[in-house]
Design a protein that fits this description.
InterPro entries: ArsR-like_HTH, AsnC-type_HTH_dom, Dimeric_a/b-barrel, Tscrpt_reg_AsnC-like, Tscrpt_reg_AsnC/Lrp_C, WH-like_DNA-bd_sf, WH_DNA-bd_sf. Keywords: DNA-binding, Transcription, Transcription regulation. This is AsnC family transcriptional regulator. It comes from Herbaspirillum hiltneri N3. With 155 residues, the chain is α+β, with helices and mostly antiparallel strands. It folds into two domains: 41 residues, Arc Repressor Mutant, subunit A (Orthogonal Bundle); 82 residues, Lrp/AsnC effector binding domain/regulation of amino acid metabolism (RAM) domain (Alpha-Beta Plaits). 35% of the residues lie in helices and 19% in strands. The protein contains five helices and four strands; from the N terminus they run αααβαββαβ. It has a four-stranded antiparallel β-sheet. Strand 2 and strand 3 form a beta hairpin. The longest helix is centred in the N-terminal third of the chain and has 13 residues. It is elongated, with a radius of gyration of 20 Å.
């Protein structure tokens, strides 16, 4: 990756719908060369996908919670099955394995506190292998999802 690739990524992170012509004008490169670079970034998996970022409250998802989840050590061999179930829950919009007292950190969205409670108690806690969880309710979104700070020298 070079400086032009980094600039392309910065522009696409700001506006994923930016046209190839606009990108090429911005970085002073011909449209065919620019398109070739974007295609290479896509093929290499640097650009995972393109998506619209929807405001949760605009679609009735007024509650966001971060949920720390721990697995039952006796059933730890079921970890991939648990992960498969986690991926299938649409309420879970992000999931990370973590170090420390818990095994996973989940970002969960819900319509209200009652539906969040129902999801956590009646669905997530019922997944075989889940031993416990701790939820933290998001009070305010201070910095929503943003682009990555890409640098050439990342070693």
């Amino acid at each position: 990756m070079d400086k032009l690739d980094v600039k392309i990524l910065e522009l696409l992170q700001q506006d994923g719908r930016m046209s190839n012509v606009d990108i090429s004008e911005n970085i002073h490169l011909s449209p065919p060369q620019c398109l070739r670079r974007v295609r290479v970034l896509e093929e290499q998996g640097v650009i995972r996908r393109y998506a619209a970022l929807v405001a949760p409250s605009a679609v009735g998802l007024d509650v966001t919670a971060f949920v720390a989840l721990s697995l039952d050590r006796a059933q730890f061999k079921q970890v991939r099955e648990v992960e498969s179930v986690i991926r299938a829950f649409p309420e879970i919009v992000e999931c990370y394995t973590i170090s420390g007292d818990f095994d996973y950190l989940l970002k969960v969205v819900s319509h209200d506190l009652k539906s969040l409670s129902h999801f956590l108690t009646d669905r997530l806690m019922q997944v075989p292998g889940v031993a416990g969880l701790r939820s933290m309710i998001c009070l305010e979104e201070v910095k929503p999802l943003s682009g990555l700070p890409i640098k050439l020298d990342h070693h």
